Amino acid sequence: MISPIFFVVSLIVSCFYASNVQDFCVADYTAPQGPAGYPCKDPARATVDDFVRSGFGVPSNTSNVYKFGFTPAFAFNLPGLNGLGVSLGRADVEVGGVVSIHSHPGATELVVVAEGSSIIGGFIASNNKVYQKILNKGDTMVLPQGLYHFFVNQGTTPGIIYAAFSTEGPTVQLMDPSLFKNDLASDIMEKTTLLDAPQIQKLKKLFGGTN
Ligand SMILES: *[C@@H]1O[C@H](CO)[C@@H](O)[C@H](O)[C@H]1NC(C)=O
Fold it and tell me: What is the average pLDDT across 153-162?
């Protein structure tokens, strides 16, 4: 039988080591990224700068068809986030701009409108029901993981939306580019989307697709 004193001592020792060893796993960018993220940099070489990133104080570049820009603080550019399951982004949406319909497979998103008003935020559930609301400065909205969502700035001032994600490196699937910025043959597109040929050609041209 294990003596109670030995048991308590083992517990204390294991807690001590667990808290020391697993505080963080700063990304080692010199090694390739695997399915579980980046390997850990030697913790003794981690510095505070591995946990700090500047850049959210300036607008992201919105010179595009959507008048939308995005600045990420993800594990690939904020190494201290590696393995911690959370990340942040700054979205800028000009007057009349949109965040086009997209999803983040595997990541839930929580946004707060930091600047702007009359910004429609919405998502589409898997039963095709739309949940949308006009958001103003200070409003938050949650976009459940994997569901298509969008924003439209109908206000008269630029919108700034901060978005937190439930993974440190959320992926994004933009609906229009995933359909039209590829080399899938147009006749297959016609069959699989029921869109007509001129519309497919127009959108392939806009997004840089071929075939
Ligand atoms: C913003 O993006 C556009 C389009 O990609 C590019 O031409 C322009 O140089 C960028 N502006 C800045 C300030 O980076």
Answer: 98
Pair of tokens at residue 196: 């007509």
Q: Which amino acid is at 116?
A: G
Residue 200 and residue 176 in contact, taking contact as beta carbons nearer than 8 Å: no
* Nearest atom of ligand 1 to the alpha carbon of 61: 1
Q: Atom 11 (ligand 1): residue with closest C-alpha?
A: 61
Whether residue 62 sits in one domain with residue 151: yes
Q: Does residue 38 lie in a domain region?
A: no
pLDDT digits (tens, 9 = 90+) for 24-78: 999 999 988 888 889 999 999 999 999 999 999 999 999 999 999 999 999 999 9
pLDDT at position 2 is 53
Do 158 and 191 belong together in one domain?
no
**Which domain CATH number covers 49?**
2.60.120.10
Structural domain span for residue 192: 178-207
What distance in angstroms lies between residue 63's CA and the mean position of ligand 1's atoms? Answer: 6
Can you tell me which atom of ligand 1 is nearest the CA of 64? Answer: 4
Radius of gyration of the CA atoms of the chain, in A? 22
